[in-house]
Each structure stands twice: as structure tokens, then as C-alpha cells.
Fold:
Amino acid sequence: MTAGKRLVFAIPGDIETRSGGYGYDRRIMAELRALGWQVEHLKLPAGFPVPTEAELAETARQLAGLEDGTLVLIDGLAFGCIPQIVAAEEKRLTLVALVHHPLALETGISAELSKQLRASETEALKSARGIVVTSPATAKTLAGEFGVTADAIHVAVPGTDPAPPAGGSDGEGNGPMIVAVGSLTPRKDHALLIAALGRLPDDPWQCRIIGSETMDLRRRSHCGSRLAKAGLAIGSR
Structure:
């Protein structure tokens, strides 16, 4: 294994979290390993993108413990929140940021927090040797709003594995099965889905929402209230 094929991938929280972002991270590690890379997972504290002082100190300690010259890919949930830490390490480590979605553009956060995150992420990205994004739209946003030069950005769009077409619902009188995949966060807008389904009370259908219920506990409670208000029954998982 050559030194040039070693990567440390720093990701906050539980890597097995069921979300598109964590799924993307897991796939990156798997595919690089299949190509012969030595990929090490560095588990950062779970509090990002709103870390405590203790979590920031632990993150600084973890990055400081890496060998000089290490290639480090840092998930954007953390990278945009640690401008001082990455600035202290940028000459010693080769830092690359993975930006799924700019933190400041998350739906449902306060204007004050959005402003803080925009300033923090803009400053942090100055320390990145390169930036990986998951869509051309995100690349355009970083170049237009976060002061990133276009040639520093590399787009790696998520893909899907080849699979036969889905067979559809079972047709046993329960109607269609609607599947919504996404964590219960404002940006996924489950409220709109619930409102639409509430207009179909007499039609036979089922809906299964698949995703984390713990990322935003207020949103989970809000969705539960919306379901009750719409008169929709909640079945067991």
C-alpha cells in the first residue's frame, strides 16, 4: 500500500445513521477501499453542526494526533464549524472538505444561526486543498456565495446500483404503498406530504416514512401533531 493511497475520513456521529449523507459517506469508503485505498474512519463527536466547546476541543485533539502530511477528508457537518481548527492544521495536513449541503442554507434554522454558519463555513473552506460536493447546484452555490474558486471544487454525484424495476404494491386490497425516505427535518418537508395525504381519507393507501427520528425532535413532534390533525392513523413500524 503506497502512502499516496491512504485517506482518513473524519465524520461526526454514527456512521450507520440512516440518511442519504451518511450513506454517501459509507459508499465513498467502500469504493475507495475497492480501488486499493487504505481508508481509516475517524469518528468525530456527534454534536455537529452545533458542537459544544468540549466537542470542539476533542475534534482539535483528534486532528492534532494525525501524522504530518495525512490526507484528511472531513464531512461538511463538521468542516464548516471548525474554521480555527482547520486553519491551525492546514499546513500540516492535506485537508479536503465534503459538502453535501451548505450548513447556512438548512431549512428551519434561525436567521442568526444561519448567519453564524455562513461566516464559519466561508472561513473554514479557505483551509481546504479541495472540496467535494454532491451536485452541480452545490458547486455553483459555493462558488457564488462562499468565495470558493470553481477549480477547487469536484462534483461527485450520488448514484444507484443497477436493480430490476420495483414490482409495486401487492394489490391485496391495501392500495398503493407510498415510501418517503428522509430524516424528519424541516428541509424534507414531511408536513406537505401529510397535508396531501390528508386530502385522500377515503382512498386505500399506506405510507411509510423511513429516516432518522432523532435529528430534530421538535420536527418529529410537529409531524405527529400534523398526522393527528389530518385524522391519519399511525401504524406500528
The chain has eight helices and eight strands. The CA atoms of residues 92 and 116 lie 27 Å apart.
